[in-house]
Inverse folding.
């Protein structure tokens, strides 16, 4: 049986050498000078380690060996900083809630300040004495008045824990007294009799002259009779009161009240009250 020759295309393909093997799979050729020597085994090329820089070809050839991008390490917050932040947040919450509560209380109850008034006063005695040694004018006076402490609130009870009363003539303190503590219910008024005594109180020259002038005007106006403010002795009653307001049984707050009453009385011994003007504020 005759063997047919293969077609020319097949012969051309057989003549073409096989494609070269990849570099890392090639086996080294034997040494022509020493045919019996076995060549060393082929070692594939290794990617660079961590201590060697990578080239662009290596990065494209071994994409898995690219150095990973590490985010910067997170700094842990100290417990003290957390405690300060939580404390400030709680403090702000308490302040805000307290402000809202105070606003609601004032809008609902509308608390008002208690008032001090003097409906009646009498100058029982008053005269000036002169100290021969120091040539100083000394005042001796006896004044009684009725103090009215009123609570105008309809939903708030008031307690006066301390009441200090001072009597001034011009700019000089001439007498001082105190009132015992008491409590007032809503819409209630309490009357207290206050006795002020000035004994050997030194007056400046200007105040002594003013006392003589006003006393003469009060005597000319009929003593205890009627008359205007110019016909009497003008004095000031100043009250300093520690007050506590109670709204129900839960809300209680304390504050100082300052009362100022300007009174005009006639000449002694029956120097009745001629005019009065009072105001009370915190």
């Amino acid at each position: 049986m005759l063997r047919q020759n293969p077609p020319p295309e097949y012969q051309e393909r057989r003549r073409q050498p096989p494609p070269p093997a990849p570099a890392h799979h090639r086996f080294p050729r034997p040494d022509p000078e020493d045919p019996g020597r076995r060549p060393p085994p082929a070692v594939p090329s290794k990617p660079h380690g961590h201590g060697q820089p990578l080239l662009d070809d290596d990065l494209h050839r071994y994409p898995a060996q690219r150095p990973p991008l590490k985010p910067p390490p997170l700094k842990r917050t100290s417990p003290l900083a957390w405690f300060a932040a939580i404390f400030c947040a709680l403090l702000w919450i308490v302040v805000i809630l307290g402000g809202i509560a105070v606003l609601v209380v004032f809008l609902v109850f509308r608390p008002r300040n208690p008032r001090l008034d003097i409906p009646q006063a009498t100058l029982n005695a008053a005269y000036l004495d002169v100290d021969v040694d120091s040539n100083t004018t000394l005042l001796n006076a006896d004044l009684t008045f009725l103090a009215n402490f009123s609570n105008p609130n309809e939903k708030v009870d008031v307690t006066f824990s301390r009441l200090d009363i001072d009597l001034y003539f011009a700019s000089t303190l001439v007498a001082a007294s105190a009132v015992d503590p008491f409590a007032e219910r809503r819409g209630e008024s309490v009357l207290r009799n206050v006795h002020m005594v000035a004994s050997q109180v030194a007056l400046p020259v200007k105040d002594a002259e003013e006392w003589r002038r006003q006393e003469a005007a009060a005597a000319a106006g009929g003593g205890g009779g009627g008359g205007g403010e110019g016909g009497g002795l003008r004095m000031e009653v100043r009250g300093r009161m520690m007050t506590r307001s109670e709204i129900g049984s839960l809300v209680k707050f304390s504050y100082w009240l300052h009362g100022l009453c300007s009174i005009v009385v006639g000449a002694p011994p029956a120097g009745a009250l001629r005019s009065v003007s009072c105001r009370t504020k915190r």
Observations:
- The radius of gyration is 54 Å.
- The first strand starts at residue 115 and ends at 131.
- Residues 79-109 form the longest helix (31 residues).
